[in-house]
Amino acid sequence: MQTNQTLSLPNMGCGTWAWGNQLLWGYNESMDDQLQQVFNLCVNNGVTLFDTGDSYGTGRLNGRSELLLGRFAREYDGINKNNICIATKLAAYPWRWTRKSIISACNASAKRLGKNVDLVQMHWSTANYAPWQEVGLLDGLADLYEQGLVKGVGLSNYGTKRLLWVHKRFQERGIPIKTLQVQYSLLSTYPVTELGLKSVCDDLGIKLIAYSPLALGLLTGKFSENGNFPKGVRGILFRQILPGIQGILGTLQSIANSRNKTMSQVAINWCICKGTIPIPGAKNLEQAQQNLGTLGWFLNDGEVAELDNAAAKSEKKMVQNIFQTK
Length: 326
Known about the structure:
- It is a single chain.
- This protein is α/β, with parallel strands linked by helices.
- It has a domain at 17-217 and 275-299: TIM Barrel, CATH 3.20.20.
- It has twelve helices and eight strands.
- It has helices at 32-44, 64-75, 99-113, 131-146, 160-171, 190-193, 197-204, 232-241, 246-259, 263-273, 285-292, 301-313; strands at 17-18, 49-53, 85-90, 119-122, 152-156, 177-183, 207-211, 277-279.
- The chain has an eight-stranded parallel sheet.
- Strand 3, helix 3 (99-113) and strand 4 (119-122) form a beta-alpha-beta unit.
- The model is unreliable at 1-6 and 10-27 (pLDDT under 50).
C-alpha cells in the first residue's frame, strides 16, 4: 500500500532554484550566514524548489550541501515555508548496485537534511558503461516511493530511449516519474532538438528540469575572448567555446538591452519559455537577485525565435555530460 503524499512541484511562474555543487566551489564556513540569506531571499520570493545531490561535496565537505540545505530549511521562518520542496540526486557509485544500497543512500540523505527527501532522483544512468548495475538502483528508487519514504521520484541525464525503458518498468509497479533533469541551455539544446525529450516528457506527464541554464557562466556576458578566464579546466573550455558563440551572445545582449534585463535573465527566461524548469545556482545575494529578475515576465515568440536561430547557427556547443544517455 502506498502512503505517499502527492508531490507538488512549484510552477514555472513561481520560479525554481538549484542548490548544487556550485555551492561548494571555494566554500568556507564563513559563507554559511550569507548562504542562509540567499536561501531566505529565494523562498520569500516564491522560489521553493531546491535541488542538490549526495555527491555534492567531497573530502571534509562530504554531504555538506545537503547538511546546509536541511539546516536552512529548518531555520527559515517566513512565507512559503510549507511549500519548500527539497530534491536530491543519488549517485550511481560503483559500490551501489542493489536496491538496498539506494534505500540506504536515501536514508543517509534524509538524515543530513533532517527530514525525508521530497523528490529523490537517480543522478545518472549507468547504461553507457554498466547497464546491469542500473536494475537494482531503479528497483530501490521505486521501493522508496512504495514505502512512502519520498513523495516523488525522478531521473537525471537520461535520454529518450532509456527514459522510455525506465518508464515501462515503473509503470508496471504503478510508480510515476515526476521529473527528468538534463543539461539544457542555448548552448546545449541537444536533449530537446536531437533526443526529442521535451515532447516525450510532455506525453508522459514528466516535468523537464534544465540544469546549467547559463552554460557554466558562458551565457552571462561576463567573459570575453581577450578577457580573464576562470582557472583550471573551466578556463580551457571557455577559451575553446567563446570564439564560436559570438552570435548567441550578441543576440542575448540585444534582447537584454531592449528588455532592460541582463543577458543571464534572458538566457534563463528562454529556458522557461521552452517549457522547462531551469535551476540556476546562486551562492551570494547578488546572484540570487539576478536570478529573481528572471521571473514575472516572458520573452515573446519573436525573441524566442531569434534565440533559437542563433543557437542553431552557433559554431560551438557546450560539451555534453558524459553520463547523458540516448
